[in-house]
Structure formats: structure tokens, C-alpha cells
Amino acid sequence: MTALMVVEIRRALSRRLVRMLVLVALLGIVIIAIGAFATSDPDAADAFSPADIWTPELDQSSDAAIVGGVSFLFLLMALLGGASVIGAEYKAGTITTLLTWEPRRLRVIGAKLAAAAIVAAVLFLVLEALLAGALAPAAVVRGTTEGADDDFYRSLAGFLGRGALLTGGCAVLGGAIATVGKNTTAALAVVLGYIVIVEQILRGLRPGWNAWYLGENLGIVLTGERLDDVVRSVPGAAAVLLFYLGVFVAVTLVVFARRDVT
Amino acid sequence: MAVIEVEGLRKEYRRLRGGPTLALDGLDVSVPEGGVFGFLGPNGSGKTTTIRCLLGLVRASSGRSRLLDAGPRELHTVIGRVGSMVETPQFFPNFSGRRNLELLARLDGIGRARVNETLDLVGLGSRAGSPFRTYSLGMKQRLGLAAALIKDPELLILDEPANGLDPAGIKEIRDLVRRLGSEGRTIFVSSHLLGEVQQMCDRVAILARGRLVTEGPVADVLAGGRASRLVVQVAPLEAALETLRSADLDATLDGHHILVQLPAEDAARVTEVLADARMYVSELRPEEIDLETVFLELTRSDGDATG
């Protein structure tokens, strides 16, 4: 199993799409850091501060914290990356070759999903740390470091931990749907279609169900804060997400184990 | 001991549209240990489905298949001793041949030296660094063969290994397969190239419409149970035919020669009869049957087996 997972991690890191996503993220980090540095005025009241880097509040009146805001993009990237790692396998037809080396299908799919989760989570941590680090000069040189106390760092570390778990989960979700649909695009279309269209419609029709929506629960877990209009604690939201993911993974395992590879 | 055993194997593919397709209809095959075993059949006869069932890629609807005495559920216990290539091998298009092979080899703890050695063995050493997507069909086949050989397997399952290769490449593969077979390994090879199969296989099985039509040593299958015949070239043909028939020989006209139903050891009887009638043969030889002829006869007589 370890050898299989190491191979899957190496393969994921060798994929052009994964490398391209990392490159795009790095470019974004550089642009955001330069922008923050250039636009901050040390003498103004709203000089760049730790609160601009990270604050858990999601309510619309507060300033959007950069690290938190960007993390939703990273979740999407993880979804795409996870779907691509498995979708590409079907597109290239290499799943046949792989199964003639390791016929235990649950091991194969388990290693693939685990590898996608590990790669996504580690990249999330590295990129978010780089982003926070790249924003530090703006606060130190052209802003204020007030508020960068132990609580700030503890809160930031908590966010990074939860974010890494969510990113890993998104990669698993993308991979699971791509396995069932045998296609990267299908996986993206299903998830984005659900979040952007289905859940929006449901919110309008059934606002009382908001404690069960993916978007709300993602928001609660990512920020580590309860939302005003959603009756769900952070552990509760994490449990809901874990349940959804568990259902998808279980369906994926059954489908993959029983599928004829032709 | 049989390294591959298939008993009453049946596979029905269920489709959303158009109803189920019967790919295997109670197939029985037994492949003994050692040597090269040819697996023949027209398109759609079930060759690849059989191989996929053996390798656990598709689930049989019913019947039994065993590979090195392991059923589909215990396949992982023997897969390290089995090298296989199913249809046109597929690898990651943007990775080089070497990278693709290294990733697979790592699963079995096989090192880089063995990867390079195998790439050289299949004649891909000089292009191993190029992306797989730039490979010709023949090069893809060679990489697939390398992936099958890298484990140094005792059983090699090859599905159309010569597909896309040029004549020189086909000969290379034939020589390689023969050599591997003579080393005590078992090579199970499906192919459309009947001439190649005839040259490299010790035993063959022919299937049509998902069923076994015949199986056995190549020579026995070629004989196909028919009485051996002699080809006689003589002039004048019509008079010679009458002479042979009047001597109670079963002779028929076949184009520009006469076929006489007699074993080779009784050829002197033909010369004697014709010489007595002052007719002298210019050619007298046993009729040669090739695998293609037998294959076409068997698969045609079994029904309209088509692709």
C-alpha cells in the first residue's frame, strides 16, 4: 500500500495540471503581495495590518481577509486537481495497465484518493504559508503589526489546519466523482453545478435547510466561526462534511470494485 | 500442471441500450506449463475478454478461471509472477516511456537498472526519454512489452503483441517470445497473425463466438482430423485423373493439379499407377495445410463469427 501511495503521490506531482495550478497560485501570491505593499499607506488609519492577512469573520461588513478569501480558490483547485489525477487515468486508459500490476481495487482507489488528499493538503499549507509570508512585509514596512499577538497566530494556525483538511477533502471529493464518472470535467460539472445552481435554488426555496448545505458547512469549518443564521457548530459542520464525503467515497469504492475495466 | 485454467467461462456485457452482448459462452481452455500457447479467434470471438477475465479486469458472469492456481479473488498473490499486455498498452501521454515504466516498477520494488535493461531488451532504449504521446504504435507496443517483461515473469500474457510493428519488429517479437518460451516460461499469446502463431507456438486454441472450437499441439490442429492428401502435378491432367480413379484412388482435380487422398508414405502407389499408364509425374508432395486455412475452416463452420 505504501509503495502504491508513493507512486500515486509522485505521479500526481508530475502531472502538468498540478504543476500549472501551483504556478498560477505562486503568481497570484506575488501579485497580491506586491499589491498589498504598494497600496498600503503607513500613515493612514486603514494601514495594512494582520487583520487584512487573516480574520475569521465572514460577515459582509468586515474587510475580507486575504488568506481566508484565497483559500476558497485553493479548495476549487484541490477539487480540480483531485478530479484530474483520476480523470486522466481513465482518459489515458492507464487504469488497465495499473490493475494488471495491483489487482486489489480497493487498495488502488484508496491509494489514489489518499495521495490526492495528501498532495492537496500539503500544497495548501505551503501556499497559504507563502501567502501569509509574502504579505508580512506590507504589514511590517508599510502598515502595522498591531494585533499580531499569540491569539492571531493561534487562530491562523487553526485556520491552516482546518483548511488543509478541507482541501484534502475537496481533492478526495473530486477524485471520487471522477472515478464514478470516469471523467475530470464530469466531476467539476457535478460539484460546481451543485454548489452554484442547485444549492442556490434550494436556499431560496428551503432557507431552513441551511444547516445542511455544503457551502454553509464549508464556511463554518474553514473560518472556525459559527455563522449567524446557521444553527451548526464547527465540529457539527465538520461532521456533516465528513458524512457527505463518506457517502461519496463509499459509493466510489463500490462502483470501482465492481466495474468492468474494458 | 496447468498455469491457466478456464472452465465454462461465460461473460455477458450488459448495455444501457441494445440489450446484453454475449462475449464468452462457456469457454473451456487449459494452458500447460512451459512453451508458447497461441490463442486465436476472429474479432469479437472473446479473446480479449478471456484475458481480461483472467487478469481480474472484468468479472465473469459465470464459470471458473484460474491463473497460476489463483482465482480472481486471490489474483494479488500471483500477479507478481505474471506479466501482461492487454490490447494496445496505455500509459500517461506526457510522461516519458522511462518515467511510465519506473512508476510501475516501483510498485514491485524494481530498480532503475532493471527498467533500463528492459527498455534496451525491447529496443526502446534510445527513445525512452521521449514523451509517450510521441511514440508510434509500434513503440507503444514495445513499451507495453517492456512493462510485461520487467517483472521477469514465469507467465506472460500477451494480447496481440505484434500489433503495429513493422516486419523487422514482428520478427524480433517472434524471436523474443520463442526464446522466453524455451526458457521454461509459459507464454500465452493472442494474435491475428496466423503465420506468426504457427511459427512461434507449441500449442494453440481456436475460439469462435465465445466458445472453444479446437485446442492442441499446432501439428494436430493443422491436421484437423482430416486424411492427409498428396498433390500431384502431371500431364495430361484429365487422363491422369481417370487413371487414378480407375485404380480405386480417391483423386480430385484442384486447379492445375490433382489431390489424392493418401498418406505421404503411400506416394509410391501414385507413381506406380501413373507410370503403368505411361504418364510421369513432374511434382509429388504432401499437401501443406497452414493455420490460416484451418482457422478459416473451423471458424466458418462454427457459424458466422464476425467482428
Structure description:
The complex is a heterodimer of chains A (262) and B (307). Chain A is mainly alpha-helical. Chain A is 77% helix and 0% strand. In chain A, helix 6 packs antiparallel against helix 7 (150-181). Chain A is globular and about 65 Å long. Chain A starts with a helix and ends with a helix. The model of chain A has no long low-confidence stretch (mean pLDDT 87). Chain B is of the alpha/beta class. Chain B contains 10 helices and 13 strands. Chain B has helices at residues 47-54, 97-107, 112-121, 137-149, 167-182, 194-200, 218-223, 237-246, 267-276, 291-301; strands at residues 2-13, 21-32, 35-40, 62-67, 82-85, 155-159, 186-190, 203-208, 211-217, 230-233, 251-254, 257-260, 283-286. In chain B, a hairpin with a 7-residue loop joins strand 1 and strand 2 (21-32). In chain B, helix 2 (97-107) crosses helix 3 (112-121) and helix 3 packs across helix 4 (137-149). The longest helix of chain B has 16 residues, at 167-182. Chain B is elongated. The two termini of chain B are 33 Å apart. At the A-B interface, helix 1 and helix 5 of A face helix 2 of B.
SSE topology sketch:
The complex is a heterodimer of chains A (262) and B (307).
Chain A: H1 2-14, H2 16-39, H3 50-53, H4 66-92, H5 94-99, H6 105-142, H7 150-181, H8 184-205, H9 214-223, H10 234-258
Helix pairs in contact in A: 1-6, 2-4, 2-6, 4-6, 4-7, 4-8, 6-7, 7-8, 7-9, 7-10, 9-10
Chain B: E1 2-13, E2 21-32, E3 35-40, H1 47-54, E4 62-67, E5 82-85, H2 97-107, H3 112-121, H4 137-149, E6 155-159, H5 167-182, E7 186-190, H6 194-200, E8 203-208, E9 211-217, H7 218-223, E10 230-233, H8 237-246, E11 251-254, E12 257-260, H9 267-276, E13 283-286, H10 291-301
Parallel strand pairs in B: 3-7, 3-8, 5-6, 6-7
Antiparallel strand pairs in B: 1-2, 1-4, 8-9, 10-12, 10-13, 11-12
